[in-house]
Amino acid sequence: MEKKNIDWENLSFSYQAIDQRYVADYADGAWQPGHLSSDPMITMSECAGVLQYSQSVFEGLKAYTTKDGHIVCFRPDLNAERMYNSALRMEMPPYPKNLFVEGVRKVVEANTAWVPPYGSGATLYLRPYMFGISPVIGVAPARDYQFRIFGTPVGPYFKGGVKPIIVKVSDFDRAAPRGTGHIKAGLNYAMSMHAIVTAHQEGFAENIYLDAATRTKVEETGGANILFVDGDNTLVVPKSDTILPSITRRSLVYVAEHYLNMKVDERPVYWDEVTGHKFKECGLCGTAAVISPIGRINDHGTIIDFPSGMEEIGPVMKKLRETLLGIQMGEIEAPEGWIFQIV
């Protein structure tokens, strides 16, 4: 299929409707067969569960053109599993994992003209999501639901290269103990809006959240997991029941251990380790950017600078990022099952 006439190398990271999206309805106690649709609009009751009580979960993944010309997705089975678990926690009927992956395949197949070419730095971002669509006025789960997947071509998260960012320690809590921090629900992101807008107004790129119970341990940021590198080149990964299980983070842990022969330490990370300058590199990890290096943290006026500096990504984070990107783009052999080939 001929590609769309788009300036691929200058795409922003923003929404642009494409030709087809996937839609499946849950009604009468069962998921109905999914189908492709050319209609980007959704019609629902003014009293829909998602509008009244934020009953929604979502995922994010990308379709790439690899070096050899194939169109692939990266580990969509893990997105399917995470959404399944998120739905259970939100009292929503989980969308079957095999149908989730099949929906991803159908959307990408139907929109290959929108998948950016190899080497452009752009990708087709895919957003699977599910929400309560039937009317709910009392506090209760909706009866009916809709599962959808749309795509949008996006440029690289970083324009002009990967540069270290400055973040702040937030006064707000991201997730309560035994709350919903471990699932990808829309409500988690809604409650972070005020904190991120405030951070941006103050000149910071993101917030670091400490644990809500004791405010002594590192959790994550508003939209990404956190990684550290210590003086022994060990990858230190904060561990908590309220941290979202990032697919990128899990993949980077594997890359560190099996491709770069690094030691990985997944454990609670105490804030006094950060203020005590135990770590030489720090970064955020997620689907959009893979790794975003942190050069400086502002803790209510106390400045914590990492030895990797503010000029460029540190050497360990750089190698991790380049290796995972190489795997995704077909430049480095991938572990079995990581690359889902569509075309």
Radius of gyration: 20 Å
Oligomeric state, counting identical vs distinct chains? single chain
The level of helicity is 10-25%
Number of helices: 8
Distance between the termini: 11 Å
Shape: globular
Report the structural category. alpha+beta
Description:
The protein has helices spanning 49-53, 76-89, 97-110, 186-190, 193-201, 247-258, 271-275, 315-328; strands spanning 21-27, 30-31, 35-37, 56-58, 61-65, 71-74, 123-132, 145-154, 165-169, 206-210, 218-221, 225-230, 235-238, 264-267, 279-286, 290-299, 302-305, 339-341. It is α+β, with helices and mostly antiparallel strands and 343 residues long. A hairpin with a 4-residue loop joins strand 12 (225-230) and strand 13 (235-238).
